[in-house]
Amino acid sequence: MTRSNAREIAVHLIFALGFGSQSDQELLDSELTRERFQELAEDMPLYAQYPNEKQEQYIRKLVSGVFFHGPELDDYISRYAVGWSFARIPRMAAAIMRTAMYEMLYMPDIPNAAAINEAVELTKRYESPEVVSFVNGILGSFVRAECGDDSPKPDKGESEETDEAPEA
Predict the structure, then answer these.
(1) Does any domain span residue 159?
(2) Is 75 domain-assigned?
(3) Is residue 84, in this structure, part of any structural domain at all?
């Protein structure tokens, strides 16, 4: 499983948090199991492989971090969503932006450019081109204003797709 796949699974779980009264730990305990992955793999190839220990830690850190920092992340989204009310933002796009913002703010080992690029690619899978542009614009404005956009860019030889080596 790649880090991109682990991130997408985390986004699915973050999205699910918006539809119930479960805590992050309750959701993780019920959804992040081999049995649940086997059930989901029938309809979604993303779940065909269960995450290794490092990938599972990464998923848990993202889901719990976004859950804990949700109001802060939503405030950032609202602040940079010029011309859009938060209620108008598709829930999947909001989950993707929360994930990317959390990575940029609280996971310094993930370059800001990688967090944004991954968010845009994920958004392309789930939303219209208008929403993809919107997400890209919000995250670009956010990183310039809140993060100083001074993070190192990934080397051309370095790939986020191989999560076997990089730390999560």
Answers:
(1) no
(2) yes
(3) yes
pLDDT digits (tens, 9 = 90+) for 99-130: 999 999 999 999 999 999 999 999 999 999 99
Which residues lie below 8 Å from residue 15, measured CB to CB, with a gap of 6+? Answer: 91, 92, 95
**CB count in 10 Å sphere of residue 14:** 27
Sequence-ordered list of residues with C-beta below 8 angstroms from that of 14, at least 6 positions apart, any chain: 62, 63, 66, 67, 95, 98, 99
The domain that holds 74 is classified in CATH as 1.10.940.10
Residue 150 carries which side chain, given as an amino acid letter? Answer: D
CA–CA separation, 112 vs 36, rounded Å? 32
Q: CA–CA separation, 12 vs 107, rounded Å?
A: 19
- Radius of gyration over alpha carbons of the chain, in Å? 15
Q: What six digits make up the tokens of 98?
A: 């929360």
Does residue 153 lie within any of the structural domains? no
Phi-psi category of residue 69: left, alpha or beta, with phi > 0 → left and psi -120 to 50 → alpha: alpha
167, 103 contact by CB (below 8 A): no
**How many domains does the chain fold into?**
1
Does the pLDDT at position 74 exceed 50? yes
Domain containing residue 93: 3-147
148 pLDDT above the threshold of 80: no
